[in-house]
Structure formats: structure tokens, C-alpha cells
Amino acid sequence: MLQNTRWTRSLVASMIAVACAAAAGAASADDAPLPKIAAKKPLKVGFAQTESNNPWRLAETKSFKDVAAKCGWQMVMTDANSSAAKQVSDIRSMIAQKVDLLVFPPREEKPLAPVILEAKKAGIPVILVDRNVDQSLAVAGKDYITFIGSDFIDQGKRAADWLIKATNGNAKIIELEGSTGASAANDRKKGFDDEIASHSGMQIIASQSGDFARDKGRQVMETLLQSHPEVTAVYAHNDEMALGAIAAIKAAGKVPGKDITIVSIDGTRGALEAIKAGELGADVQSSPFFGPISCEVAEKYAKGESIGPWVKVSDKFYDKSNVDASMKDGY
Ligand code: AHR
């Protein structure tokens, strides 16, 4: 075990710097063509999930299980239990098993980039779904086939536009951020913060990560309600944290949807029910159903069709005006 001395700290710092430089260098130095998808059935496909602690993740995993037989995919599935390091080692083990195709949502933007380059070097094609990686470390269309996913910046902007309208441009906002370093958290923050910046009455009074998890969202909200009792609105980067915040608001004796206006992202059944109950104001959908579209994109790529670097998924929007008709969308 390494002791926490100045020498070991500097050794670890230089090891990290070398690893980052190697990853960045490899991204720009490797001009080899992308690996092809083998023309065979079944195709051994590795799907490395980030965690399974919320309905969105469960729906995403299920959508791959459901499409596998139809697509001729034999799935190898792992669960990283909310650890980027575990997701990296899960993917390395899939590379060692020589899967024919890797499909995964990178938990965080930077730590998952080097393993994409390792897969390319091993001749294994990669499709990223749901979240993307830092494009200075691995490049869509060059180091991996494509990124299939929503426009997270636009989701944040749509949440902001609804909140500005619902509060007549006046709100003291607590922002519950997703997992630190995840593209979904970085971009949903950017889209929201940039949009409200030009409205002087809209003020973000606190912004903290709840790691996209219900209980963490509840705990963070409990603490922030004590330090910021003046709060009038909450923007949660996902539904689980919004539902956690609603529980915290009720426990503090306030009425969600009345004392505090809440907007969120995902479109889970729980969130749609919260809209019906008047506790959640609005919800931007973020589809977790990546199985069928991944199969379609992989088949097109295997046939030699050209695929753009971003296959954009479009998202609906829910509020009290359409929630009854939209309950069937919930998962
Ligand atoms: O990357 C998408 C986000 O990750 C979803 O909003 C969230 O629920 C999930 O964990």
C-alpha cells in the first residue's frame, strides 16, 4: 500500500499526467480507419451499464435485452455500480473477451475516453449511447462510430424556458446537478444556466450534485433548504433527484408545486404522477430506449452506410396540459 507522502503524491500526479497525455496524444495521433462490424450472427455485443439505481437506467438496460434476439445480438452485460473506474475495467474485460461490438453510456466524460482508444486498437467498434465523452480525448466518427443521444444542452434550455414562464421571470433557484463529470450533468447545467443568465429576476442561489440519485437528491435538498429557506424553485437534472427534493420539501413543511416550483428531466412514471399530483411543474423527456436505435445504426454501419458523429434523439415535454394523455410514455 502506498503511504501518503509528498513523494507518493507527486508520483501519482505524474502518473496521472502521463496517462492523460497518452490518451490525448493517442486521440490525435491515431488516424487508422474505424474497425468494421463483423458480418455474422449472433454478434457478441458488450453493454457496460453505469449503475442500476433508477428507473431510467433499468429501462435503458431492458431496451437492450428486449432488442437483442431481434437484432441477432448475444449480449455480455455489466453494471459499474456508479463507479467510472469499474466501468473502465468492465469494458477492458469485454475487450479481452473479444466482443464484436461495444455499446455503452460513458459514466463520466474524461475517464471513459482512453478505453475507447484501447477498443479501437484491438479492432473492436464502439457506439456510445446516452452520454458522450470529452471530444479532445476521443472523437466521434474517428475513434468510435457515433454518439446516439439527446441534446442535453437543449434539455436544460427547455427546462429554463418553462421555469421563466411559470415564475414570471422571478425565482430563487436551487439546482440539483447530476453526477460530477457526466456529459448529462455538464450540458444540462450549461443549457439551463446560460438561458436564465439574461433574466435578472432569475437567481441560482445554490447548485450542488445529487449524483442523479433519489436519496442523495433528498439529502442535498434537506441541507440546502436549511441554508436557503428563501428558495422558490428547484431545477433537478433528473427525475429521481426531483422526487427526492419533493420528499425533502414536504418534510420541511412546505408544499411542492405551490411554495416551490419544480422542473426536471427524464419522463419517468414517478415524475409524470408527480405532475398529475401538482407537485412537479414540468418534465423534459430524455429517452432511455437506446436498444432499437443502436441495432438500426449498427446494421447500417455494417452495410457500409455512412453514419454522422451524432445521431440525435428528440425528446417530448410534459406538463399538466398533456400529462394525462402521456402516462403511457412513463417507465
Ligand atoms: O444520462 C442520462 C441520465 O442518467 C438520466 O437523466 C438519469 O436519470 C440517468 O441516471
TrEMBL record:
Keywords: Signal. PROSITE patterns: PROKAR_LIPOPROTEIN. Residues 1-29 form the signal peptide. It holds the Pfam family Peripla_BP_4. Residues 45-305 form the Periplasmic binding protein domain. GO terms for molecular function: carbohydrate binding. Belongs to the bacterial solute-binding protein 2 family. This is ABC transporter substrate-binding protein. It comes from Pararobbsia silviterrae.
